[in-house]
Amino acid sequence: MFPQRRMRRSRTRVIQPLLCETGLSKNDLIAPLFVDETITVPLPIVSMPGQFRYPIGGIAPVAGDLWKRGIRAILIFGIPRDKDPEGSSAYHPEGVVQQAVRRVKAEVKEMVVITDVCACEYTDHGHCGIIGNTRGGPDLLNDPSLELMNKIAISHAKSGADVIAPSCMLDGMVGSIRAALDDAGFANVLIMSYSTKFASALYGPFREAADSGFAFGDRTTYQINPGNSREAILESQMDADEGADILMVKPAVFYLDILSEIATLGLPVAAYQVSGEYSMIKCAAEHGWIKEKETVLESLTSIKRAGAELIITYFAGDAARWLDEKQ
Ligand code: PBG
Ligand code: ZN
Fold first, then answer.
1. Is residue 12 situated within a structural domain?
2. What pLDDT was estimated at residue 327?
3. What atom in ligand 1 is closest to the CA of residue 278?
4. Would you list the DSSP string of 82-124?
5. How far is it, in rounded angstroms, from Cα 42 to Cα 108?
6. Which residue's C-alpha comes closest to atom 8 of ligand 1?
7. Which residues line ligand 1 (CB under 6 A)?
8. What is the pLDDT of residues 157-212, one digit of tens each?
9. Is 179 contained in some domain?
10. Beta-carbon contacts of residue 109 (< 8 Å; ≥ 6 apart)
11. Which residues, by Cβ under 5 Å, contact ligand 2, an ion?
């Protein structure tokens, strides 16, 4: 007790750096990128100031720039020209993601390329898979949608993706994709599962970014209720058992309690700082109400402190620069 114990003794400017418990490094960060098949010049995403959709021809230079800044992984989302009820443009060999992956792999060879595997950008109804009638009305059909995800995953792997990230929250999704990849000769492609994904209002700006707003209903019959913790842990545990290589919690900062528990399951864990988290910080900072750099680095440090190995963040490029300045 005081006065023998003085906590401030360890907080002096000379001692404090030695006792820092949580490090943040550029190796921890994954940059999400939006590739749009219908544009020829970058298109600003209004609800996410500073973020753009890039044309297919523009994606490799952006990846190259991130690589130069020290970012070693990107997560690619595609906006296709054609949408239909079955999301069939998602597994076309010349689809937008397939082309983007090939270009990045050709021009930025060591960049780790992760692809989002879901159908909501490719279906005309905007839901994450195949829709059919159920007792509760039109809803996402589980097992038919698994077949679709297998096809998308294989086509991404064929294009050269290093890591497949299924984000549709279907039951059996990881086991099904693992078997499909193994059968197709892609045993070395990793699966980073969106294993614990909440039905969050924080995905709002992503609807504009990825053109994936839904025509009816919502995603609460497949994503997790934000109040449910036990269910959230079980979801990640099941994906671990089905063979996921990396688990994920999404969103990040509202769900740090969940993240710290999932970090005990024995697999690497990623956290996704989602579009709404980005835009809240960005908007307040643009008004001068908070300091952007300090807020971003604090949020990323908190996510790491809670137990994430990896952070998917739209701030990746900026954070890399700020981390360089710090040294
Ligand atoms: C697709 C997907 C979404 C996000 C990532 N993948 C949207 C959703 O689930 O509704 C959200 C990412 C973000 O908000 O930054 N299923
Ligand atoms: Zn989706």
1. no
2. 67
3. 15
4. --BTT-GGGG-TTSHHHHHHHHHHHHSTT-EEEEEE-STTTBS
5. 20
6. 203
7. 116, 118, 120, 128, 167-168, 203, 206, 219, 274-275
8. 999 999 999 999 999 999 999 999 999 999 999 999 999 999 999 999 999 999 99
9. yes
10. none
11. 118, 120, 128
Asked, for residue 15, whether it belongs to a domain, the answer is: no
Q: What is the tally of structural domains in the chain?
A: 1
pTM of the predicted model as reported, rounded to 2 decimal places: 0.97
Ligand 1 centre to CA of 10 (Å) is 42
Output the residue whose Cα is nearest ligand 1's atom 10.
203
Report which protein residue has its CA nearest ligand 1's atom 5.
167
- Which pLDDT tens digit goes with each residue over 293-314? 999 999 999 999 999 999 999 9
**CATH number of the structural domain spanning residue 156:** 3.20.20.70
Label residue 209 exposed, middle or buried (CB < 10 Å: 0-12, 13-18, 19+): buried
Domain containing 311 equals 22-326
> Residue with structure tokens 């190259």?
64
pLDDT over threshold 70, residue 116: yes
